[in-house]
Specification:
By secondary structure, the protein is α+β, with helices and mostly antiparallel strands. A 3-stranded antiparallel β-sheet has the order 2-1-3. It comes from Oldenlandia corymbosa var. corymbosa. Keywords: Ribonucleoprotein, Ribosomal protein.
């Protein structure tokens, strides 16, 4: 599940030592307070992820910009990265043979 889909599905975030925060919406048109909060989180470009220690201060910052970011635990982040890696993995080539079908011998 992508970070944005997890955010939209309102997946409950379990307590975790570290949180992975991904910026899923752009900053143009947002309030200056929200832009400054994202700068403090070091989130400047869309689809960038940062890892931060789970503290009450961080939770307050995330509560301000919750519509702009997706929050994941370590397990959710690693599962998403593994799924993306599997999707990008090389696949064996498709071999198509244009030879005519082998003739069947009749044993009579």
């Amino acid at each position: 599940m992508s970070a944005y889909k997890a955010f939209k599905a309102c997946v409950p975030v379990e307590w975790s030592e570290r949180l992975y925060i991904t910026l899923v919406r752009g900053t143009p048109g947002t309030r200056a307070l929200h832009r400054r909060t994202l700068e403090a989180l070091h989130l400047t470009k869309c689809n960038r992820t940062v890892s931060r220690k789970n503290t009450p201060t961080l939770r307050g910052m995330l509560n301000q910009v919750k519509r702009l970011v997706a929050i994941e635990t370590k397990e959710m982040y690693e599962a998403r990265k593994q799924q993306e890696a599997n999707h990008r993995a090389l696949r064996p080539p498709l071999v198509v043979s244009h030879d005519s079908a082998p003739k069947m011998e009749s044993s009579q």
